[in-house]
Amino acid sequence: MIGSGPIVIGQAAEFDYAGTQACKSLREEGVTTVLVNSNPATIMTDEGIADIVYIEPLTVEVLERIIAAERPDGILPTLGGQTGLNLAVELSDAGILEKYNVRLLGTSIQTIRNAEDRELFRNLLKEIGEPTPPSVIVESMEDAWKAVDEIGLPLVIRPAYTLGGTGGGIANNREEFETFAASGLAASPINQVLIEKSLIGWKEIEYEVMRDAADNCITICNMENIDPMGVHTGDSIVVAPSQTLSDKEYQMLRTASLKIIRALGIEGGCNIQMSLEPGDIVAETLPEGGRAESPYYIIEVNPRVSRSSALASKATGYPIARVAAKIAVGKRLDEIPNAVTKMTLAAFEPALDYCVVKIPRWPFDKFAAGDRSINTQMKATGEVMAIDRSFEAAFQKAVRSLEITNRDILWEDPNFFIDPATAGDISEGNIGRNNLPLYPNDERLWGLLYALRRDVTPETLSRLTGIDPWFTRAFENIVLMEERLLNGHLDAPLLREAKRLGFSDENIGRLTDRTMEQVRRLRHQWEIIPIYKMVDTCAAEFEA
Known about the structure:
This protein has a 7-stranded antiparallel β-sheet with strand order 13-12-9-10-11-14-15, sandwiched between helices. Strands 5-8-6-7 form a 4-stranded antiparallel β-sheet, covered by helices on one side. The protein is an alpha+beta fold and 544 residues long. The chain has helices at 14-28, 60-70, 81-93, 96-99, 109-116, 118-128, 141-151, 174-187, 247-264, 280-283, 307-316, 320-328, 391-401, 428-431, 444-453, 458-465, 469-487, 492-500, 505-512, 516-525, and strands at 34-36, 52-54, 74-75, 103-104, 135-138, 155-159, 169-171, 193-197, 203-211, 217-225, 238-240, 268-276, 296-302, 355-361, 382-388. The relative contact order is 0.10. Helix 1 packs across helix 11. The longest helix is centred in the C-terminal third of the chain and has 19 residues, at 469-487.
């Protein structure tokens, strides 16, 4: 098994989580695992996780020496992030897998190529009738400039075989295009980039899908990015399950996901990213009224356990890496028992009767001079996840979990400013007079709350940011409760409502002129006490 190497921006501990799960899972099946990873500061390299551990550089030469010494039957490359995937391709190209008669477990080399090589992927989607945005694949700057004339700006540059959008970006003008196209060609191991029509402002949706060798497929979880297209999914605030899709849209994208994983022939976990046409309020602000040839487009597929898989695993209780490892050694979904319920099988789609919110954690508090704007190239160094009964409560819990010194949900930057004359209307024309970080950046969520507290409507913010009105209205619910706590008399019904929206005792105290201990005493007096719920994968439909 190939690990994910050093912890770098875009590839952090989520792959350690996957690799550790997979080693334990293979041991349950009586399979001896040989793990190679260059990073000793991981759980997967602890004694007792894998049977044999090599802490060595992750290069083709080193891997060949290990294969020659250990003579493994197979290699599992899909649980070590992009590093593991790229090394499997390099080992195959160098003829090493053939020389030592080593099988690739789970997903085949051709499948990895079909998903990672932008041209092969686009051709495959065309064959199965799935829509992709207008795009051109180029391997030189000369061809890149032709693409600008053909498609027109703004454009998204996506390099092949890179992680976290490395080298890519969004080009709004010719200078930006030259920078991103050159860095994308340099970053791609095969010097190939996809130049794609920008879908900025569209919704971004992800599906985690699982398939076995007998072609059984399930969707484990669908996730919706609060930030619209134009922000890397690792830098987006994400909610699971999706909140703003109609049932028709949910089923349309689910069907497309199953069609794609089957066409690729992936055995194990897979992450599919799509863009969906926004609702009317956001669509009004897009060029040409935001209408397009298709209501959705396929953006990309990760033919491996991804960063989102760790989130989906914890959000649903479905152990994606554990199941993917068992599928890799030949088990079917209907042969793998659900480790949580002990009653159902892994072929059972998890059900969520709660809301999950993920917020990325950026290092800008340590790099104060860094460029705070975020785009298609990931900058986050970690993320937090919170689960609660409502979106508002999960969101507040996640903001607290960020643990940024002296910055909770009530924090406001002294530099934030809205001109009182234009407070009700901070449309594009007036935004210049207001110092609010409403472009994609690490402080946008505080900027949104600041604006809502000054009577800017959720709809106005949606038009400015492309964030669906469902979310801006949910943020408004938090602000309206702040006002009620500030201006009202704190009684048992109000306190209960505030707690159900996720307000901490400390913040309720600040808003009602009490100490945190006084609020806690009142809560106990009125019998408003927390309870803890289990993630059981089946929404209590079965004993778990």
